[in-house]
Amino acid sequence: SPLAPGVPTIAESGVPGYEMGYWFAAYAPAGTPPDVVKRLNELLVKATQSAPAKQFYAQTGTDPASSTPDELARFQQAESKKWGDIIKKAGIQPE
Predict the structure, then answer these.
(1) pLDDT-based confidence at 54, cuts 50/70/90?
(2) How many CA atoms lie within 13 A of 15 on its CB side?
């Protein structure tokens, strides 16, 4: 991170293959017309690339990324599988 140039990455600290992050997304109600979803996506991508957003991201050490609704759906499916497998392997039970 440019905010902590002297801090080694987790891999450099001895944990190769470590991958952890956070993400957030915008959603519309089920059944929203595809043209509305497309337009909302276009506006959100444009906003993500705006000067104020870029300044915010730089100040918070955030690496912004945007995607299409289909890419988001595939990403969420992959995340659910990955974390579901980790939870099962670790034997974590709901409380």
Answers:
(1) very high
(2) 6
**What single-letter amino acid sits at 24?**
F
CA distance linking residue 70 with residue 32, whole number of Å: 14
Q: Of 35, 34, 57, give the one whose Cα is nearest residue 47.
A: 57
Which tokens go with 54?
Answer: 């870029």
Residue type, position 29, single letter: P
C-alpha span between 39 and 43 (Å, rounded): 6
pLDDT one-digit tens code per residue, 69-94: 999 999 999 999 999 999 999 999 98
